[in-house]
Amino acid sequence: MRFTVKDLGDHSRSLISLQPGTRVAIEGPFGTFTKHQSHKARPILLIGGGVGITPIRALLEELPTDRDVTLIYRTSNEAGLIFLEEITEFAKQKRIRLHVLPGSRRRYPLDSAHLLQLVPNVRECEMYICGPTSLTETIRESARELGIPKSRVHSEIFEYHTVMESE
């Protein structure tokens, strides 16, 4: 079993400091982000934003080497690139086209024109998107503009929310 924890506060810091063998109670997993949704003949486009690369990384392990796969890995900055070494190795082993995009939304908008530039066959792809709401909504809108049916766009929101307690 593997856990990915993004350091966002006291709780995540305490998880990071746990020693191997420490007993913990966990819930989940949650979500429905799986490869079984994929049509076998279609090319696959995987888009991971920030820590949303975590389920994408798990999908990479399951993909056969004979699939036409493109992976777009988008983060706000280079410090946010987790699993980059592993993902680069998967890309080599499975002949996956990899686009690593650390930087601002202005630099890498991932609008319909940018997606077409990165993935010329995007209109034929089965799309898997996982990341923050802003990224997911941008990609879903780009897919709509490109005429990609909703049935081929699979997404999951992966972001941190703070909870405000009332006094």
TrEMBL record:
Query: What's the protein here called?
Result: Unannotated protein
Name the UniProt key words of this record, in alphabetical order.
Answer: 2Fe-2S, FAD, Flavoprotein, Iron, Iron-sulfur, Metal-binding, Oxidoreductase
Q: Which molecular-function annotation in GO is an example for this chain?
A: flavin adenine dinucleotide binding
Q: Which organism is it from?
A: freshwater metagenome
Cofactors needed by this protein, per the record, are: FAD
Signal peptide stretch: none
Q: Which residues form the Oxidoreductase FAD/NAD(P)-binding domain?
A: 46-140
| InterPro entries per UniProt | FNR_nucleotide-bd, MRET, OxRdtase_FAD/NAD-bd
